[in-house]
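Fold in C-alpha cells:
===
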Amino acid sequence: MTKAASTDNRDANTADAPTELSIGLQHFPVAFFAVSMGLWGWALAMWAGAAHIETLMPVAVGLRAIATIAFIAILGTYGLKALRNFAACRAEWAVPPRLAFFPAISISVLLVSMGFLPSHPDIAAILWPVGAALQGVLTLAVISSWISHRAFETGQLSPAWFIPAVGNVIVPIAGAPLGYIDLSWLFLSGGLIFWIVLLTLVMNRLMFHNPMPGKLLPTLVILIAPPALAFQAYVALVGTLDPFARILVSAAYVFALLVLIQLPRFRHLPFALSWWALSFPLAALATASFKMAEVAGKPIYNSIGFLVLAVLSVAVVALCVKTLRGLLNGVFWRPEV
C-alpha cells in the first residue's frame, strides 16, 4: 500500500469515527431544561418580590439576564444534539422518566415570555404563541405515548410526570394579559384535569408501592407547583380572589408542609439533575404568595413569599455551583449511572 493510500484510509477512518463532541452530546439529557425552569422561576419570583421591595429590581433584572443566557445555551446544546444524533433524542423519548421532561422545553419558552412581559411586551407577544403551540403539541404527544399500548411499571411513575400538566397551567399567566382568553381557559382546563388524574396516580404510587429511588426523592417538591401555578393562572383570568382560588393556593401550602416534613430523607443524597426539582416549585410558591398578598390585601402572605424566596435563593445558588462543577467534570456528558 502506498503512503498516499494509507493517508487516505486514515483520513476516512477519522471522518467516520465519532468525535468527543458527538459522544458527549448524545448523553446531554433533556432533563437539563429543568435548570432553565429553575433559573427562570427564581428570576420571576425575585421580580414579584421587587414589586414590594424596590431595591430588589436590579437583582431581578440581573437574574432575568442570567436565565435568558442559560436557556439559550441549553437550547443550543440540545438542538446541536438533535442535529448531530437525533437517534439519541428519540431514545430519550422512549424512556418514561425522561419523556416527561420534553415539555420543559416549551415551559421554558413560556417562562421567558412571562419574564419579558412587564418591560418588553412585544417580545412576550412573539414568544407566547410559540411556547403555547409547542406546549400543546408536546402535551398531546406525551399523553398519547402514555396511553398507547406500552405498559408502564409503577416504579417508573414519579412527580416529574406532572411537568406536562404544569406547562398547561402556566400558559394563562401570560396569555390572559396578552388577550388570549379562550386559549388560556382551554390550557388551564386541560392542565387541571390531568393534574387531578396524575395526582391520584402519584399518591397511589407513594402510598402503596416501594419507596422512590433516592435520586428521585427531590421530585416530591414538584407536588407544590401545579396548584401554586394554577392559582396564578386562575386569578389572571377571573381577576379576583374567589373560593376556588383560595382552594388552589391553600393546596399549594398543604403540599409545601408535606414536603417540609420529608426533607430529612433528602440528607446525604448524591447530587443529580433531579435536585433542580427543588427550584421551580419553590419559585411558584413564592410568586403565588406575593400574588395572594396583592389580591387578599394581607401582608402575612408577603412575609411567606419572602421567606420562600430566601430559601429558594440559597437552594438555586447551591444547585448552580454543583451543576457547573458537574459540567466541568464531564458528569453530564457521560451515560447516566
Observations:
- Residues 20-333 form a domain with the Glycosyltransferase fold (CATH 1.50.10.150).
- The chain has a mean pLDDT of 88.
- The two ends are 44 Å apart (CA to CA).
